[in-house]
Amino acid sequence: MRVLLHICCAPCCIYTLKTLRKENVDVTGYFYNPNIHPFIEFSKRLTTLENYARISLLPLIVDDEYNLRDFLKGAIDYGKDRCLFCYSIRLEKTFKKAYEEKYNAVTTTLLYSKYQRHDDIKKMGLDFSEKFNISFIYMDFRLGWKEGIEESKRLNMYRQNYCGCIFSEYERYGGKKNDTWIR
Q: How would you class 63 by CB atoms within 10 Å of its CB: exposed for 0-12, middle for 13-18, buried for 19 or more?
């Protein structure tokens, strides 16, 4: 089975890739993350992933589209549910790529993070699965959260402190979660 794995960052890929390979699937990574801001953060995450892909022998497709204006508009329109917009654009683009390249299934490293909304990701994955007639692999990769963190530290990887968007960066580094301009 050929699986296209949407990857948000290298640390989240470690346990996810290990688990998929144990299942004997042919995995290709796919980096599409117009949500990551500022641009220097986007570049650090992409470079770290490219380095990890080399050492782990992971084929990697990179879509380095950085459409800040459209991402911010969509996220603001969704308000407090901005994560749903973020999941949707990345998963849909991954399914489109999988369809074009004739992959059998799609999954995502978003399912590794204990900070993401798993039920929403799973529902979207299943919806896109129907739309594109490609399987969605739902696995709770959070089971390997600690293992992935330890391995990323051992590999001396760049590890970010927020999910990626400028809103989460603001909340992480001094903003208030109930600020009205981000809700």
A: middle
